[in-house]
Design a protein that fits this description.
Number of helices: 4
Number of strands: 8
Radius of gyration: 26 Å
Structural class: alpha+beta
Order of helices and strands: EHEEEEEEEHHH
Helix content: 25-40%
Distance between the termini: 85 Å
Strand content: 25-35%
Shape: elongated
Largest sheet: 6 strands, mixed
Length: about 180
């Protein structure tokens, strides 16, 4: 008899969880979460359509209760150069060691960020939203020239740089003499 392999579907991420209990259980929470569930992020994006994929792995690392996680999302933000919507891929990885107050910050290894545990339940939404917020650039802009004005402006700047080069006049003379020889 062949054993039947069971595939596990990702769990829907809860709004909150008892992080200390998740550590004790060695739990992994992973799944999809709608971008519309992040109210602070909605102030930075032009559309809250779509979703993020997240994974939180709870356990002990370097002797500390911790969570290692990742979140990936395709966000629509406004380009600050042309003011048009643009796609922004976010892929963040993080490691938190759980502490109970700020006095413990200096005790945790450098590989971790401190995360203060208050009360029984902690917000999964807030943790993931914080990571997304940190991943969005302060001034998002298209990688390429996104407007005719910027393209023309960049060409003018390049011409100005070339003209101000100390040997630009010599290059122009050399180019003229090369033309006469040919």
């Amino acid at each position: 008899n062949c054993p039947i392999m069971q595939t596990r579907m990702p769990v829907e991420l809860p709004d909150t969880a008892n992080f200390q209990r998740q550590v004790e259980l060695g739990s992994t929470l992973s799944g999809e979460i709608s971008v519309s569930r992040f109210p602070r992020l909605s102030e930075l994006i032009v559309s809250d359509d779509g979703s993020a994929m997240a994974s939180l792995v709870f356990g002990y690392s370097a002797g500390y209760a911790s969570v290692k996680g990742s979140i990936k999302a395709d966000l629509k933000v406004e380009c600050q150069r042309c003011l048009q919507p643009m796609d922004l891929k976010v892929d963040s990885r993080f490691k938190f060691a759980f502490v109970h107050d700020e006095d413990e910050f200096d005790l945790i290894p450098d590989e971790f960020e401190p995360y203060i545990i208050e009360g029984d339940e902690q917000s999964v939404i807030d943790l993931l939203e914080d990571e997304l917020l940190l991943s969005v650039p302060m001034v998002p802009v298209h990688d390429e020239h996104c407007s005719e004005f910027m393209s023309v402006h960049e060409q003018e700047k390049q011409a100005e740089r070339e003209a101000s080069h100390p040997f630009a006049a010599l290059k122009a003379l050399k180019d003229k003499s090369d033309d006469k020889v040919n």
